[in-house]
Amino acid sequence: MKARYPSSRLIVVSADGLRPDVYLRANELGLKIPNLRRLVSTGASAQAVTSVYPSTTYPAHATLVTGVLPREHGIYSHLASLDPTEKARPWSWFARAINVPTLWDVARASGRRSAGVGWPVSAGAAIDYNLPEIWNPALPDPHQDFETVARHSTPHLFEQVLKALGPLAPGAPKRPSQAAQALNPDRLRAEGALFLWQRYSPDLLLLHLVFYDHQAHHYGPLARESLAAVEQTDYEIGRMWDVAQEDGNVTLVVLSDHGFVPVSRDAAPLVVLLDEGLFTKKADGSLELKRLGAIHAGGSFAIYWLEEPKPDDRRRLEKAIRRLEASGAVAEIVDRGRLERLGADPDAELILEAAPDHYFSDRFRAPEVREAVEDRGTHGNLPSTPGLEAAFIAVGPGVAAGKKLGRIELAQVAPTLARLLGLPVGILASNAEPLDLS
Ligand SMILES: [Zn+2]
Prior knowledge:
With 438 residues, this protein is an alpha/beta fold. The protein has 2 domains: 9-260 and 385-420, Alkaline Phosphatase, subunit A; 262-378, 2-Layer Sandwich (Gyrase A, domain 2). Helices cover 32% and strands 20% of the residues. It has helices at 21-24, 34-42, 57-66, 70-73, 103-109, 146-152, 157-165, 179-183, 185-200, 211-219, 224-244, 269-275, 311-326, 336-341, 413-421, and strands at residues 9-15, 44-50, 114-117, 129-131, 204-209, 250-255, 261-267, 279-281, 287-289, 292-296, 300-305, 330-334, 350-354, 357-360, 369-371, 377-378, 392-395, 403-409. A hairpin with a 5-residue loop joins strand 8 and strand 9 (287-289). Zinc ion binds next to loops.
Protein backbone atom coordinates (compact mmCIF):
# COMPACT_ATOMS: atom_id res chain seq x y z
CA MET A 1 0.00 0.00 0.00
CA LYS A 2 1.26 3.46 -0.81
CA ALA A 3 2.15 5.62 2.17
CA ARG A 4 -0.51 8.22 2.90
CA TYR A 5 2.01 10.83 3.98
CA PRO A 6 5.42 11.33 2.38
CA SER A 7 6.82 12.20 5.82
CA SER A 8 8.90 9.58 7.54
CA ARG A 9 10.17 11.32 10.66
CA LEU A 10 8.18 12.85 13.47
CA ILE A 11 8.68 15.31 16.35
CA VAL A 12 5.94 15.32 19.00
CA VAL A 13 5.94 18.18 21.51
CA SER A 14 3.52 17.73 24.40
CA ALA A 15 2.93 21.09 26.09
CA ASP A 16 1.43 19.89 29.35
CA GLY A 17 -2.00 21.34 30.14
CA LEU A 18 -2.11 23.62 27.08
CA ARG A 19 -5.68 24.64 26.23
CA PRO A 20 -6.65 25.03 22.57
CA ASP A 21 -8.00 28.50 23.32
CA VAL A 22 -4.41 29.78 23.44
CA TYR A 23 -4.31 29.38 19.66
CA LEU A 24 -8.06 29.85 19.03
CA ARG A 25 -8.26 33.09 21.08
CA ALA A 26 -4.66 34.32 20.90
CA ASN A 27 -5.64 37.88 19.95
CA GLU A 28 -8.25 38.21 22.67
CA LEU A 29 -5.77 36.88 25.26
CA GLY A 30 -3.06 39.23 23.95
CA LEU A 31 -0.66 36.33 23.42
CA LYS A 32 2.61 36.69 21.53
CA ILE A 33 2.80 33.20 20.09
CA PRO A 34 4.06 33.57 16.51
CA ASN A 35 5.00 29.91 16.17
CA LEU A 36 1.69 28.46 17.35
CA ARG A 37 -0.17 30.91 15.09
CA ARG A 38 1.92 29.93 12.10
CA LEU A 39 1.50 26.22 12.91
CA VAL A 40 -2.30 26.63 12.87
CA SER A 41 -2.29 28.52 9.57
CA THR A 42 0.12 26.15 7.81
CA GLY A 43 -1.05 22.89 9.42
CA ALA A 44 -4.07 20.95 10.64
CA SER A 45 -5.49 21.82 14.07
CA ALA A 46 -8.21 20.66 16.44
CA GLN A 47 -10.86 22.88 17.98
CA ALA A 48 -10.69 20.60 21.04
CA VAL A 49 -9.34 17.21 22.04
CA THR A 50 -11.41 15.20 24.52
CA SER A 51 -9.02 13.90 27.20
CA VAL A 52 -9.41 10.78 29.38
CA TYR A 53 -10.72 10.19 32.92
CA PRO A 54 -9.14 11.31 35.12
CA SER A 55 -7.90 14.14 32.89
CA THR A 56 -4.39 13.98 34.34
CA THR A 57 -0.92 13.84 32.84
CA TYR A 58 0.05 10.19 33.23
CA PRO A 59 -3.14 8.43 32.06
CA ALA A 60 -3.42 10.92 29.18
CA HIS A 61 0.19 10.53 28.02
CA ALA A 62 -0.20 6.74 28.05
CA THR A 63 -3.26 7.18 25.82
CA LEU A 64 -1.28 9.51 23.51
CA VAL A 65 1.21 6.71 22.74
CA THR A 66 -1.17 3.71 22.75
CA GLY A 67 -4.48 4.96 21.34
CA VAL A 68 -6.52 3.26 24.07
CA LEU A 69 -8.23 4.49 27.25
CA PRO A 70 -6.76 4.01 30.75
CA ARG A 71 -8.87 0.91 31.44
CA GLU A 72 -7.01 -0.82 28.62
CA HIS A 73 -3.49 0.63 28.95
CA GLY A 74 -3.42 0.31 32.74
CA ILE A 75 -2.19 3.79 33.79
CA TYR A 76 -5.12 5.05 35.85
CA SER A 77 -3.39 7.81 37.77
CA HIS A 78 -0.16 9.75 38.22
CA LEU A 79 0.42 7.86 41.48
CA ALA A 80 1.51 4.24 41.67
CA SER A 81 0.49 4.03 45.35
CA LEU A 82 -3.09 3.85 46.64
CA ASP A 83 -1.97 4.66 50.19
CA PRO A 84 -2.51 8.34 51.11
CA THR A 85 -0.76 7.86 54.47
CA GLU A 86 2.50 7.05 52.68
CA LYS A 87 5.02 9.91 53.02
CA ALA A 88 6.64 10.06 49.56
CA ARG A 89 4.27 8.34 47.15
CA PRO A 90 5.90 6.93 44.00
CA TRP A 91 4.47 7.87 40.59
CA SER A 92 3.67 5.66 37.61
CA TRP A 93 7.02 6.30 35.98
CA PHE A 94 7.73 2.92 34.44
CA ALA A 95 6.73 1.91 30.93
CA ARG A 96 6.41 -1.73 32.00
CA ALA A 97 3.10 -0.77 33.67
CA ILE A 98 1.58 -0.06 30.22
CA ASN A 99 -0.38 -3.17 29.20
CA VAL A 100 -0.50 -2.65 25.42
CA PRO A 101 1.98 -1.79 22.63
CA THR A 102 3.17 1.82 22.48
CA LEU A 103 4.40 3.91 19.57
CA TRP A 104 8.01 3.29 20.61
CA ASP A 105 7.37 -0.47 20.64
CA VAL A 106 5.93 -0.31 17.12
CA ALA A 107 8.83 1.90 15.99
CA ARG A 108 11.40 -0.56 17.34
CA ALA A 109 9.59 -3.57 15.85
CA SER A 110 9.74 -1.76 12.50
CA GLY A 111 13.47 -1.04 12.74
CA ARG A 112 12.93 2.68 13.43
CA ARG A 113 14.72 4.61 16.16
CA SER A 114 13.10 6.76 18.81
CA ALA A 115 14.15 9.37 21.37
CA GLY A 116 12.33 10.77 24.39
CA VAL A 117 12.82 13.68 26.79
CA GLY A 118 10.73 13.91 29.95
CA TRP A 119 7.95 11.77 28.51
CA PRO A 120 5.65 10.45 31.27
CA VAL A 121 5.54 6.67 31.91
CA SER A 122 8.64 6.08 29.80
CA ALA A 123 11.28 4.98 32.34
CA GLY A 124 12.73 1.69 31.13
CA ALA A 125 10.90 2.02 27.78
CA ALA A 126 12.12 0.54 24.48
CA ILE A 127 13.23 4.06 23.43
CA ASP A 128 16.70 4.16 21.88
CA TYR A 129 17.73 7.55 23.32
CA ASN A 130 15.70 8.07 26.45
CA LEU A 131 15.78 10.73 29.18
CA PRO A 132 12.53 9.86 31.00
CA GLU A 133 10.53 11.84 33.56
CA ILE A 134 11.34 10.42 36.98
CA TRP A 135 12.45 11.74 40.36
CA ASN A 136 12.86 10.77 43.96
CA PRO A 137 9.49 11.70 45.56
CA ALA A 138 11.18 12.22 48.93
CA LEU A 139 13.11 15.24 47.59
CA PRO A 140 11.59 18.76 47.89
CA ASP A 141 12.18 19.85 44.27
CA PRO A 142 11.70 17.04 41.73
CA HIS A 143 12.90 19.16 38.80
CA GLN A 144 16.33 19.52 40.40
CA ASP A 145 16.70 15.75 40.89
CA PHE A 146 18.92 14.93 37.92
CA GLU A 147 20.64 11.99 39.58
CA THR A 148 17.46 9.85 39.37
CA VAL A 149 16.87 10.87 35.73
CA ALA A 150 20.47 9.98 34.87
CA ARG A 151 20.15 6.56 36.49
CA HIS A 152 17.02 5.70 34.48
CA SER A 153 18.20 7.15 31.16
CA THR A 154 19.84 5.25 28.32
CA PRO A 155 23.33 4.42 29.72
CA HIS A 156 25.71 7.43 29.55
CA LEU A 157 23.19 9.52 27.60
CA PHE A 158 22.35 11.98 30.38
CA GLU A 159 26.06 12.72 31.02
CA GLN A 160 26.59 13.19 27.29
CA VAL A 161 23.69 15.65 27.00
CA LEU A 162 24.91 17.61 30.03
CA LYS A 163 28.35 17.94 28.51
CA ALA A 164 26.86 19.16 25.23
CA LEU A 165 24.58 21.71 26.92
CA GLY A 166 27.43 23.32 28.86
CA PRO A 167 26.20 26.35 30.87
CA LEU A 168 22.55 25.29 30.60
CA ALA A 169 23.29 22.06 32.41
CA PRO A 170 22.18 21.65 36.03
CA GLY A 171 24.97 22.41 38.43
CA ALA A 172 26.77 24.72 35.99
CA PRO A 173 27.52 28.20 37.43
CA LYS A 174 24.60 30.52 36.70
CA ARG A 175 24.55 34.25 36.15
CA PRO A 176 21.77 36.03 38.10
CA SER A 177 19.73 36.42 34.89
CA GLN A 178 19.78 32.68 34.56
CA ALA A 179 18.28 32.14 37.98
CA ALA A 180 14.80 32.20 36.46
CA GLN A 181 15.81 29.33 34.23
CA ALA A 182 16.17 27.12 37.27
CA LEU A 183 12.40 27.54 37.70
CA ASN A 184 11.74 26.54 34.13
CA PRO A 185 12.73 22.96 33.31
CA ASP A 186 11.55 23.35 29.70
CA ARG A 187 14.67 25.20 28.54
CA LEU A 188 16.78 22.21 29.53
CA ARG A 189 14.29 19.67 28.16
CA ALA A 190 14.03 21.40 24.78
CA GLU A 191 17.80 21.80 24.43
CA GLY A 192 18.26 18.14 25.37
CA ALA A 193 15.71 17.14 22.72
CA LEU A 194 17.44 19.29 20.08
CA PHE A 195 20.73 17.66 20.92
CA LEU A 196 19.29 14.14 20.57
CA TRP A 197 17.60 15.04 17.28
CA GLN A 198 20.75 16.49 15.75
CA ARG A 199 23.24 14.00 17.17
CA TYR A 200 21.30 10.74 16.61
CA SER A 201 18.69 11.58 13.91
CA PRO A 202 15.92 9.46 15.45
CA ASP A 203 12.76 8.78 13.40
CA LEU A 204 10.52 9.67 16.35
CA LEU A 205 11.23 12.29 19.02
CA LEU A 206 8.89 12.72 22.01
CA LEU A 207 9.33 15.88 24.11
CA HIS A 208 7.28 16.78 27.19
CA LEU A 209 7.21 20.46 28.27
CA VAL A 210 5.87 21.18 31.75
CA PHE A 211 6.28 24.88 32.58
CA TYR A 212 2.77 25.98 31.54
CA ASP A 213 1.23 23.21 33.68
CA HIS A 214 3.35 24.28 36.63
CA GLN A 215 2.33 27.94 36.33
CA ALA A 216 -1.34 27.19 35.58
CA HIS A 217 -1.64 25.08 38.74
CA HIS A 218 -0.11 27.84 40.81
CA TYR A 219 -1.58 31.01 39.26
CA GLY A 220 -4.63 29.79 37.30
CA PRO A 221 -5.06 28.82 33.64
CA LEU A 222 -5.25 32.32 32.17
CA ALA A 223 -3.23 34.29 34.74
CA ARG A 224 -0.51 36.64 33.52
CA GLU A 225 2.23 34.27 34.74
CA SER A 226 0.62 31.31 32.97
CA LEU A 227 0.22 33.20 29.70
CA ALA A 228 3.90 34.20 29.95
CA ALA A 229 4.65 30.47 30.20
CA VAL A 230 2.61 29.89 27.02
CA GLU A 231 4.85 32.43 25.27
CA GLN A 232 7.93 30.64 26.57
CA THR A 233 6.46 27.33 25.32
CA ASP A 234 5.91 28.98 21.93
CA TYR A 235 9.61 29.84 21.85
CA GLU A 236 10.62 26.21 22.54
CA ILE A 237 8.17 25.03 19.86
CA GLY A 238 9.80 27.45 17.42
CA ARG A 239 13.22 25.95 18.19
CA MET A 240 11.90 22.48 17.41
CA TRP A 241 10.20 23.68 14.26
CA ASP A 242 13.43 25.23 12.98
CA VAL A 243 15.24 21.89 13.13
CA ALA A 244 12.20 20.03 11.78
CA GLN A 245 12.30 22.18 8.66
CA GLU A 246 15.97 21.41 7.99
CA ASP A 247 14.80 18.04 6.70
CA GLY A 248 11.86 18.06 4.26
CA ASN A 249 10.66 14.72 5.62
CA VAL A 250 9.65 15.75 9.13
CA THR A 251 6.19 16.28 10.61
CA LEU A 252 5.90 18.38 13.78
CA VAL A 253 2.96 17.66 16.09
CA VAL A 254 2.26 19.99 19.02
CA LEU A 255 -0.34 18.67 21.43
CA SER A 256 -1.39 18.48 25.06
CA ASP A 257 -2.84 15.97 27.48
CA HIS A 258 -5.67 17.99 29.09
CA GLY A 259 -6.72 21.60 29.72
CA PHE A 260 -7.22 23.53 32.95
CA VAL A 261 -10.03 25.03 35.02
CA PRO A 262 -9.70 27.85 37.58
CA VAL A 263 -10.21 27.02 41.28
CA SER A 264 -10.18 28.88 44.57
CA ARG A 265 -11.37 26.23 47.09
CA ASP A 266 -9.29 23.35 48.46
CA ALA A 267 -11.44 20.36 49.55
CA ALA A 268 -9.94 17.51 51.56
CA PRO A 269 -11.95 14.26 51.43
CA LEU A 270 -9.31 12.58 53.63
CA VAL A 271 -10.28 14.86 56.53
CA VAL A 272 -13.82 13.46 56.42
CA LEU A 273 -12.74 9.86 55.76
CA LEU A 274 -10.40 10.02 58.77
CA ASP A 275 -13.12 11.58 60.88
CA GLU A 276 -15.48 8.74 59.98
CA GLY A 277 -12.91 6.19 61.17
CA LEU A 278 -11.79 4.87 57.79
CA PHE A 279 -8.12 5.35 58.73
CA THR A 280 -6.43 4.40 62.01
CA LYS A 281 -4.44 6.80 64.16
CA LYS A 282 -1.40 5.14 65.72
CA ALA A 283 -0.07 5.95 69.22
CA ASP A 284 2.53 8.36 67.79
CA GLY A 285 -0.24 10.28 65.97
CA SER A 286 0.72 9.00 62.51
CA LEU A 287 -1.97 7.56 60.29
CA GLU A 288 -2.36 4.04 59.01
CA LEU A 289 -4.38 2.55 56.22
CA LYS A 290 -7.27 0.27 57.11
CA ARG A 291 -9.15 -1.09 54.12
CA LEU A 292 -9.52 2.12 52.18
CA GLY A 293 -7.17 3.48 49.50
CA ALA A 294 -7.41 6.91 47.85
CA ILE A 295 -5.86 8.99 45.09
CA HIS A 296 -6.33 12.76 44.81
CA ALA A 297 -6.22 14.04 41.24
CA GLY A 298 -7.17 17.73 41.49
CA GLY A 299 -10.60 17.79 39.89
CA SER A 300 -11.39 14.23 40.96
CA PHE A 301 -10.72 11.92 43.88
CA ALA A 302 -10.70 8.11 43.58
CA ILE A 303 -11.63 5.79 46.44
CA TYR A 304 -10.66 2.10 46.60
CA TRP A 305 -11.49 -0.85 48.81
CA LEU A 306 -8.19 -2.64 49.27
CA GLU A 307 -9.88 -5.50 51.12
CA GLU A 308 -13.48 -6.62 51.14
CA PRO A 309 -15.21 -3.92 53.24
CA LYS A 310 -17.34 -4.82 56.25
CA PRO A 311 -20.92 -3.50 56.28
CA ASP A 312 -19.81 -0.97 58.88
CA ASP A 313 -17.03 0.30 56.56
CA ARG A 314 -19.55 0.79 53.78
CA ARG A 315 -21.84 2.75 56.12
CA ARG A 316 -18.94 4.98 57.17
CA LEU A 317 -17.99 5.66 53.56
CA GLU A 318 -21.59 6.53 52.68
CA LYS A 319 -21.76 8.91 55.60
CA ALA A 320 -18.45 10.54 54.64
CA ILE A 321 -19.67 11.06 51.09
CA ARG A 322 -22.93 12.62 52.28
CA ARG A 323 -20.89 15.04 54.40
CA LEU A 324 -18.67 15.92 51.45
CA GLU A 325 -21.70 16.52 49.26
CA ALA A 326 -23.18 18.77 51.94
CA SER A 327 -19.94 20.78 52.01
CA GLY A 328 -20.55 21.83 48.39
CA ALA A 329 -17.22 20.41 47.21
CA VAL A 330 -18.63 17.46 45.24
CA ALA A 331 -20.39 17.88 41.90
CA GLU A 332 -21.23 14.20 41.42
CA ILE A 333 -20.22 10.66 42.28
CA VAL A 334 -18.97 8.59 39.38
CA ASP A 335 -19.86 4.97 40.14
CA ARG A 336 -18.35 1.73 38.83
CA GLY A 337 -20.75 1.42 35.91
CA ARG A 338 -19.95 4.92 34.70
CA LEU A 339 -16.21 4.37 35.23
CA GLU A 340 -16.45 1.37 32.93
CA ARG A 341 -18.22 3.40 30.24
CA LEU A 342 -15.57 6.14 30.58
CA GLY A 343 -12.75 3.62 30.15
CA ALA A 344 -11.44 4.58 33.59
CA ASP A 345 -9.90 2.74 36.56
CA PRO A 346 -11.49 -0.72 37.00
CA ASP A 347 -10.31 -0.97 40.62
CA ALA A 348 -11.87 2.23 41.97
CA GLU A 349 -15.03 1.86 44.04
CA LEU A 350 -16.04 5.37 42.98
CA ILE A 351 -14.57 8.69 41.94
CA LEU A 352 -15.70 11.98 43.45
CA GLU A 353 -16.00 14.75 40.88
CA ALA A 354 -15.12 18.22 42.19
CA ALA A 355 -17.73 20.99 42.12
CA PRO A 356 -16.85 24.07 40.03
CA ASP A 357 -14.16 26.25 41.67
CA HIS A 358 -13.00 23.33 43.90
CA TYR A 359 -10.07 20.92 43.78
CA PHE A 360 -9.27 17.90 45.96
CA SER A 361 -6.02 17.85 47.91
CA ASP A 362 -4.42 15.10 50.01
CA ARG A 363 -4.68 16.99 53.30
CA PHE A 364 -5.61 15.05 56.43
CA ARG A 365 -5.72 18.23 58.50
CA ALA A 366 -9.04 20.07 58.95
CA PRO A 367 -11.00 21.95 57.72
CA GLU A 368 -12.78 19.89 55.07
CA VAL A 369 -12.93 22.84 52.71
CA ARG A 370 -10.87 26.02 52.80
CA GLU A 371 -9.67 28.84 50.61
CA ALA A 372 -6.97 27.48 48.29
CA VAL A 373 -3.48 28.36 49.50
CA GLU A 374 -1.25 27.15 46.69
CA ASP A 375 -3.36 26.29 43.66
CA ARG A 376 -5.46 28.49 41.40
CA GLY A 377 -5.85 25.99 38.57
CA THR A 378 -6.59 22.28 38.30
CA HIS A 379 -7.53 19.39 36.01
CA GLY A 380 -8.49 15.76 36.60
CA ASN A 381 -12.25 16.27 36.23
CA LEU A 382 -14.44 14.50 33.69
CA PRO A 383 -13.04 15.16 30.20
CA SER A 384 -16.38 16.69 29.14
CA THR A 385 -15.77 19.59 31.59
CA PRO A 386 -15.48 22.89 29.66
CA GLY A 387 -11.87 24.13 29.84
CA LEU A 388 -10.35 20.66 30.09
CA GLU A 389 -10.01 20.20 26.33
CA ALA A 390 -6.52 19.37 25.12
CA ALA A 391 -4.75 20.75 22.03
CA PHE A 392 -3.54 19.21 18.75
CA ILE A 393 -1.73 20.80 15.77
CA ALA A 394 0.24 19.03 13.04
CA VAL A 395 2.36 20.51 10.27
CA GLY A 396 4.51 18.81 7.68
CA PRO A 397 4.58 17.21 4.25
CA GLY A 398 1.16 15.91 3.23
CA VAL A 399 -0.65 17.85 5.99
CA ALA A 400 -3.19 20.30 4.57
CA ALA A 401 -2.56 23.97 5.42
CA GLY A 402 -5.23 25.55 7.60
CA LYS A 403 -7.23 22.32 7.94
CA LYS A 404 -9.71 22.32 10.84
CA LEU A 405 -10.21 18.97 12.55
CA GLY A 406 -13.05 20.02 14.86
CA ARG A 407 -13.39 18.10 18.11
CA ILE A 408 -11.33 14.91 18.28
CA GLU A 409 -10.56 12.21 20.86
CA LEU A 410 -7.19 11.78 22.59
CA ALA A 411 -7.19 8.09 21.59
CA GLN A 412 -7.11 9.10 17.90
CA VAL A 413 -3.66 10.63 18.30
CA ALA A 414 -1.54 7.44 18.53
CA PRO A 415 -2.86 5.79 15.34
CA THR A 416 -2.48 9.15 13.58
CA LEU A 417 1.16 9.43 14.71
CA ALA A 418 1.82 5.81 13.66
CA ARG A 419 0.45 6.58 10.21
CA LEU A 420 2.54 9.77 9.93
CA LEU A 421 5.63 7.69 10.67
CA GLY A 422 4.58 5.07 8.15
CA LEU A 423 4.35 2.44 10.89
CA PRO A 424 1.88 -0.47 10.77
CA VAL A 425 -1.07 1.00 12.71
CA GLY A 426 -2.55 -2.47 13.30
CA ILE A 427 0.10 -3.37 15.91
CA LEU A 428 -1.43 -0.81 18.28
CA ALA A 429 -4.37 -2.07 20.36
CA SER A 430 -6.31 1.03 19.33
CA ASN A 431 -9.70 0.94 17.63
CA ALA A 432 -9.71 4.73 17.23
CA GLU A 433 -9.94 6.22 13.77
CA PRO A 434 -6.68 7.90 12.63
CA LEU A 435 -7.22 11.58 11.78
CA ASP A 436 -7.24 12.60 8.15
CA LEU A 437 -4.75 15.46 8.06
CA SER A 438 -4.48 15.69 4.27
ZN1 LIG B 1 -0.63 17.26 32.32
